[in-house]
Every structure is written in C-alpha cells, then in structure tokens.
C-alpha cells in the first residue's frame, strides 16, 4: 500500500480555522487528520505541499515511524509548531488507515484500552460578559450537560502584570463560578502564559482559596526556569500546575521533566507530532509521576484522536473538549464521534475501525475558510467572535 495523495481541507469558524487532511492510498483506503493552527494556516498548507512531494507521497502508511522520522529529520531544520503539526495530521491519518485495514480501533494498535470511560472537561463555555453573574450562569449550563470539570481564564487581556481592579475582577469571577457549581466540580484555572513570575504567584495565592483543580500555564512557555520558580513558590498551595500545550517536541519536554516544574503535561497531539509521539511523552512523564491531560482545541477529528490516546494511556487524567459550547455545529463534520455522557461527564470509548469517524467533505465546503485573526490579548477575547464564516 502506498500513499497517493494528501488533501488539506479548511473549515472556517468565527474564531479559528480547522484544517482537515485526507491521506489517500492506492488501495482505496483513506485516513483523516485534523489540526487547528492559530493564525498560521497558510504556513501549514505550504509545508504540507512541500512535505508531500519530498516525504509523504509513495510512502507506506503502515510504516508510521519511518515516515515521521523522515519528515522530522530530513529537512535539516529545527522542528517548529508548523512542522510538528503537519507531521501530526499525516501521522493520525496513517493510524486511521491502519485501523481500517485491520478492522480495529487505533487504541487497540497502541496497547489496548486501560479504561472504559474517558473523563472530559469543558472549555469555550464562557463566551459572555466578564461579570460574576454571567460567568455563574454560563458555568451552570456546563454542569447541566453533565461535565464534572470546566476550565476558565478569568484574566481578560492581562499581560505580564494585572491592574488591581482586574485582579479583583478575576477573583470575583472564580468565586462566582465556584458558588454556582458547588464544591464537587473541578475548576481548572487557565492563565494562558500571560504573567511574569511575581504576578502569577500573587494570583495563584489569591485564587487557591477556591480549590482549583489546577493552575495552567502561569508564565510564557519559552523560559522554563521561570516556571520552576513559580512552581517552587506555590507548592505549598497544594494545587497542581499544568503546562505544555506550546511545547512541541520531546526535547522541549525534556527540560520540563528534568526541572520537575509541573505536575500535569498538556501536550497537544496535533502540535506534537501525532498520537504515538504523545503516547511516548506520556510514558516519559510517568517516570516523573506526572499525568497527561492533552490540550485539544480541535474539532471532532482531533478529538477522536485524543480519545484513542486517552483510552490506552495509563497516566491519562482528563480530556479537554470545546465543541459542546464553542461552535457546537462543527461536530456535524463527522459521523461516529462519541458524545460526553450527561450521566457522568465522560466519553465512552470510540467505536469502529481506525479513528472510528467518517468525514463529511460537503459540510466543509459549506463552511469555507474564514478570514480570522485570534488574539488572546485583545479586550473581550473571550467572546471568540472574530469573524463569521464566509458563505
């Protein structure tokens, strides 16, 4: 079996473009991958075009390690988010192909299931005014859907420092959410790498009273020594520290592991070289007694890939999920994706061979690429309404 075509398809939403990649073979079996590139879709498409010519076309989709290593090593370039995302979408499509040919789900090819239920947390739910009343109302809708955990960034457009009134507002927002959802729901506090060390430490101390499930990415990701400083200063709070969505290679994670600067890694399958690369990271993290909670801002194909990883990874913690609240209509781009069960806030295991989903290319054509630029440091970014899809 040989790969004969790599076809990217871009679906537009009000704040993000989702790139689906169909990998075709000479035996009529195809696989699909997905990635959400923040503001860099053209770069991804350009890289895929060149990589297809030099590395992908003519390759055996069953020889995943060989293909990935050629894409990773043969360009004589330092791996970037663009490169690792392109590798990831092709890699997950190859797993999809292999599972379809062998008539087994991907997680069976990676060691088999170690759990029957996959806990999930909601994101993208707080597209409302930054007031305690609005955040409380929105949070209740999350728990009404059965979720036992939700993530929230209460900090507005803060960067490095935070004005005193914004400090107070952030505390009031988290207090309102905690009051609304009660003591048994996990509140995961997202900091989006906004702060310098002193501001991050200050805000973590102010918010620890609300028993968050974790603090996420308190400082920018480029200087892990600063993250270590924050970790040491806040260890007594007893709140786990999570990070890793903007680390893209094992070499970047090496420093994080050696510093022991976090408790939970959040590698994104679609930006870290794919399913197998992320499973390897999880195994490495396990040696440091760290958990993995994969980052996931994708639509349903990326979510499906994440669920297969979750099914077969022993130190998996919880899966991020946007698409019950942010652009819920994107779920219609596939058939076969499991839904979060309102009874327990968990996904069931995926069914069917490969990734277990079927892509609707006509749906993508009905929602073409949008002219969007998403800025997390703009006022009112939480509305996630940069532009509307072009019809």
Structural summary, described in words:
The chain is of the alpha/beta class. The protein folds into 2 domains: 3-104, Enolase-like, domain 1, CATH 3.30.390.10; 108-354, TIM Barrel (Alpha-Beta Barrel), CATH 3.20.20. It is 37% helix and 16% strand. The chain contains 12 helices and 14 strands. It has helices at residues 41-56, 64-73, 81-102, 106-109, 132-144, 164-181, 197-207, 224-234, 250-259, 275-286, 300-312, 361-366; strands spanning 3-12, 17-25, 30-36, 117-122, 149-152, 186-190, 214-216, 241-243, 264-265, 291-292, 319-321, 334-335, 346-348, 358-359. The strands form 4 sheets. It has a 6-stranded parallel beta sheet with strand order 5-6-7-8-9-10, covered by helices on one side. It has a 3-stranded antiparallel beta sheet with strand order 1-2-3. α8 (224-234) links the parallel β7 and β8. α10 packs parallel to α11 (300-312). The longest helix has 22 residues, at 81-102. The two termini are 38 Å apart. The relative contact order is 0.17. Residues 387-391 have low confidence and may be disordered.
In short:
The protein has 391 residues and is an alpha/beta fold.
């Amino acid at each position: 079996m040989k790969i004969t075509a790599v076809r990217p398809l871009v679906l537009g939403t009000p704040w993000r473009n989702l790139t689906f990649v169909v990998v075709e073979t000479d035996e009529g079996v195809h696989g699909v991958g997905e990635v959400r590139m923040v503001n860099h879709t053209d770069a991804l498409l350009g890289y895929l075009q060149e990589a297809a010519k030099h590395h992908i076309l003519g390759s055996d989709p069953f020889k995943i390690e060989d293909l990935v290593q050629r894409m990773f090593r043969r360009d004589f370039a330092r791996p970037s988010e663009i490169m690792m995302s392109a590798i990831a979408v092709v890699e997950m499509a190859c797993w999809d192909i292999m599972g379809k040919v062998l008539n087994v789900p991907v997680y069976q090819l990676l060691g088999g299931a170690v759990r029957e239920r996959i806990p999930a947390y909601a994101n993208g739910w707080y597209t409302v005014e930054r007031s305690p009343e609005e955040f409380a109302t929105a949070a209740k809708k999350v728990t009404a859907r059965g979720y036992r955990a939700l993530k929230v960034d209460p900090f507005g457009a803060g960067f490095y420092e935070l004005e005193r009134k914004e400090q107070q507002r952030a505390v009031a927002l988290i207090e309102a959410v905690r009051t609304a959802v009660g003591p048994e729901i996990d509140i995961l506090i997202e900091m989006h790498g906004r702060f310098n060390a002193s501001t991050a430490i200050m805000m973590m101390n102010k918010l620890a009273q609300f028993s968050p499930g974790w603090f996420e990415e308190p400082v920018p990701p480029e200087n892990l020594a600063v993250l270590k400083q924050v970790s040491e200063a806040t260890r007594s709070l007893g709140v786990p520290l999570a990070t890793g969505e903007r680390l893209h290679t094992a070499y970047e994670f090496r420093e994080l592991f050696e510093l022991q600067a976090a408790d939970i890694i959040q590698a994104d399958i679609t930006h870290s070289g794919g399913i197998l690369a992320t499973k390897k990271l999880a195994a490495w993290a396990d040696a440091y007694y760290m958990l993995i909670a994969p980052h996931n801002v994708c639509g349903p194909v990326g979510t499906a890939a994440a669920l297969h990883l979750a099914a077969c990874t022993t130190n998996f913690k919880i899966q991020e999920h946007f698409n019950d609240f942010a652009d819920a209509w994107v779920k219609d781009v596939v058939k076969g994706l499991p839904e979060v069960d309102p009874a327990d806030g968990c996904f069931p295991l995926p069914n069917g061979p490969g990734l277990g989903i079927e892509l609707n290319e006509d749906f993508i054509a009905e929602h073409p690429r949008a002219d969007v630029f998403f800025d997390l440091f703009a006022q009112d970014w939480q509305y996630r309404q940069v532009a509307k899809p072009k019809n």
